[in-house]
Design goal:
Mean pLDDT: 89
CATH class: Mainly Alpha
CATH architecture: Orthogonal Bundle
Helix content: 40-55%
Shape: globular
Number of strands: 3
Number of domains: 1
Largest sheet: 3 strands, antiparallel
Length: about 110
Protein backbone atom coordinates (compact mmCIF):
# COMPACT_ATOMS: atom_id res chain seq x y z
CA UNK A 1 0.00 0.00 0.00
CA UNK A 2 1.31 3.44 -0.89
CA UNK A 3 2.08 5.96 1.77
CA UNK A 4 0.97 9.44 0.84
CA UNK A 5 0.33 12.61 2.73
CA UNK A 6 -0.51 14.73 -0.28
CA UNK A 7 -2.97 17.01 1.48
CA UNK A 8 -1.55 17.27 4.98
CA UNK A 9 -0.11 20.67 5.67
CA UNK A 10 -1.26 22.35 2.48
CA UNK A 11 -2.37 25.84 3.28
CA UNK A 12 -1.06 25.53 6.81
CA UNK A 13 1.54 28.09 7.76
CA UNK A 14 4.43 26.61 9.66
CA UNK A 15 5.84 28.44 12.67
CA UNK A 16 9.04 30.36 11.87
CA UNK A 17 11.07 28.13 14.20
CA UNK A 18 9.96 25.03 12.27
CA UNK A 19 10.82 26.62 8.93
CA UNK A 20 14.20 27.66 10.30
CA UNK A 21 14.84 24.10 11.49
CA UNK A 22 13.82 22.61 8.14
CA UNK A 23 16.13 24.95 6.25
CA UNK A 24 19.04 24.62 8.69
CA UNK A 25 20.42 21.47 7.08
CA UNK A 26 22.31 22.04 3.82
CA UNK A 27 21.30 18.74 2.20
CA UNK A 28 17.64 19.23 3.08
CA UNK A 29 17.73 22.83 1.81
CA UNK A 30 19.31 21.71 -1.48
CA UNK A 31 16.72 18.94 -1.86
CA UNK A 32 13.90 21.44 -1.37
CA UNK A 33 15.44 23.81 -3.92
CA UNK A 34 15.78 20.98 -6.45
CA UNK A 35 12.17 19.90 -5.89
CA UNK A 36 11.04 23.51 -6.27
CA UNK A 37 12.91 23.91 -9.55
CA UNK A 38 11.60 20.57 -10.83
CA UNK A 39 7.97 21.32 -9.89
CA UNK A 40 6.95 17.65 -10.20
CA UNK A 41 7.46 14.44 -8.21
CA UNK A 42 11.00 13.12 -8.23
CA UNK A 43 12.29 9.62 -7.50
CA UNK A 44 14.29 9.72 -4.27
CA UNK A 45 17.42 8.19 -5.82
CA UNK A 46 17.37 10.82 -8.56
CA UNK A 47 16.90 13.56 -5.96
CA UNK A 48 19.83 12.14 -3.98
CA UNK A 49 22.09 12.22 -7.04
CA UNK A 50 21.02 15.80 -7.75
CA UNK A 51 21.77 16.88 -4.16
CA UNK A 52 25.25 15.34 -4.32
CA UNK A 53 25.88 16.87 -7.75
CA UNK A 54 24.91 20.39 -6.65
CA UNK A 55 27.08 20.07 -3.55
CA UNK A 56 30.06 18.86 -5.63
CA UNK A 57 29.30 21.27 -8.47
CA UNK A 58 29.41 18.45 -11.01
CA UNK A 59 26.95 16.87 -13.42
CA UNK A 60 24.59 14.23 -12.03
CA UNK A 61 26.24 11.70 -14.34
CA UNK A 62 29.54 12.20 -12.47
CA UNK A 63 28.08 11.28 -9.05
CA UNK A 64 29.56 8.05 -7.72
CA UNK A 65 27.12 5.25 -6.89
CA UNK A 66 28.38 5.12 -3.29
CA UNK A 67 27.72 8.85 -2.82
CA UNK A 68 24.25 8.56 -4.35
CA UNK A 69 23.43 5.59 -2.12
CA UNK A 70 24.67 7.40 1.01
CA UNK A 71 22.54 10.46 0.21
CA UNK A 72 19.53 8.27 -0.58
CA UNK A 73 19.87 6.68 2.86
CA UNK A 74 20.23 10.13 4.46
CA UNK A 75 17.11 11.37 2.69
CA UNK A 76 15.09 8.33 3.77
CA UNK A 77 16.25 8.30 7.39
CA UNK A 78 16.58 12.00 8.21
CA UNK A 79 15.02 14.39 5.75
CA UNK A 80 11.93 12.82 4.19
CA UNK A 81 10.38 11.87 7.56
CA UNK A 82 10.81 15.43 8.84
CA UNK A 83 9.51 17.00 5.64
CA UNK A 84 6.48 14.71 5.36
CA UNK A 85 5.60 15.21 9.04
CA UNK A 86 5.39 18.96 8.47
CA UNK A 87 3.50 18.59 5.19
CA UNK A 88 6.24 20.27 3.18
CA UNK A 89 6.63 17.25 0.90
CA UNK A 90 4.51 14.24 0.03
CA UNK A 91 6.10 10.82 -0.34
CA UNK A 92 4.60 8.15 -2.57
CA UNK A 93 6.01 4.78 -1.54
CA UNK A 94 4.62 3.03 -4.64
CA UNK A 95 6.70 5.28 -6.90
CA UNK A 96 9.51 5.97 -4.42
CA UNK A 97 9.04 9.64 -5.22
CA UNK A 98 8.69 12.89 -3.32
CA UNK A 99 6.87 16.05 -4.32
CA UNK A 100 7.11 19.53 -2.85
CA UNK A 101 3.74 20.55 -1.39
CA UNK A 102 4.62 23.90 0.20
CA UNK A 103 6.48 25.90 -2.40
CA UNK A 104 6.59 29.02 -0.24
CA UNK A 105 9.07 27.40 2.17
CA UNK A 106 11.86 27.54 -0.42
CA UNK A 107 13.33 31.02 -0.40
Amino acid sequence: MATQNADSGIGRELPPAVVEDLLSDESRRRALEILSDRDEPMVVEELAASVVATRAECPVSAVRAADREAMTEELFTEHIPKLTATGVVAYDSMLGAVELRQHDIVR
